[in-house]
Amino acid sequence: MRPILYGILASFFFSSTFVLNQAMKLSDGNWMYTASLRFLFMIPFLLAIVAFRGNLKPLLSHMKKRFLTWFGWSFVGFGVMYAPVCFAAEYEPGWLIAGTWQITIVAGSLLAPLFYKVASTPNGPVRIRDSIHWKGLGMSLIILFGVGVMQLSQAGHLSATDLLFGVVPVTIAAFAYPLGNRKMMEVCEGKLDAYQRVLGMTLASLPLWICMSIYAFVQDGLPSAGQTGQSVLVAVSSGVIATVLFFKATDMAKGSTQKLGAVEATQSGEVVFAAAGELLLLPVPIPPALSWIGMSLIIGGMTLHSLFSRRIPNSRKIRIESIAK
């Protein structure tokens, strides 16, 4: 139950991303600054936390040994995840992006066959490839249907271009996040905690954020004071607090794709939190009734997914392969 609680708390702090990104868009902030400043501002906070805990040297040592792996999966898990979300904010409201983001729950289920775990048998250790759990995926499709209903509710208010540039980038990001996160969990092999992993992925993806900041500077000059301050808030609430909570939850659920799927499903809470935040803080119209129906479907699908995932035995697998292969 604790991983689920951590996941829900993470979704609350993650929702600040969608609200503040929308605020920066309304104030004409460059989306590349919105993406890059979050991670640049995360570094000093995470460095202080990891150094205070005496865990900086082991992290740097681990990164040095497998630098290219760290760079590659951090680019996927952080770069391909967050830059498209910020780009999409130029075309759709934050609550709608938060709803589309829930495709990550379906993505997490579909990615299962890409991962193995080591198990002990009478014949020695073996690698076990996970399988797609089709009944659980069926529950996830309720969430996907809810996303479709939300997008349909906006069809009369947004152009085809806005819908396309809002949906496609977020869909790509929704697959990149669980893929990068789970791959980095494999790379860390349980030797690094959530704070170390977030800091390591932030440092490894730093070249991307520096390049984006330079490009944004060439386009628009320095970011405004408002965008800078809002980026600090996103860095602390979503980049540090939410990411660490979510990574801690996934660490607690590692070894079970079903439990990981349940943790990832808690992120559908972002839809409600983002919608409430935008209505309270920003001059945005109230979502139409059809949008609230879509949100309800997403929350219902998340609940069913979590309940079903807890009932599936962890022993279901598709095939076993020898480590020697």
UniProtKB/TrEMBL annotation:
Q: Keyword annotations for this protein?
A: Membrane, Transmembrane, Transmembrane helix
The residues that cross the membrane are: 37-56, 68-89, 95-116, 136-152, 158-177, 198-218, 230-247, 268-286, 292-309
Q: Does the keyword Zinc apply?
A: no
InterPro entries (alphabetical): EmrE
- Asked whether the UniProt record includes Transcription regulation among its keywords, one would answer no
Designated name of the protein: Multidrug resistance efflux transporter family protein
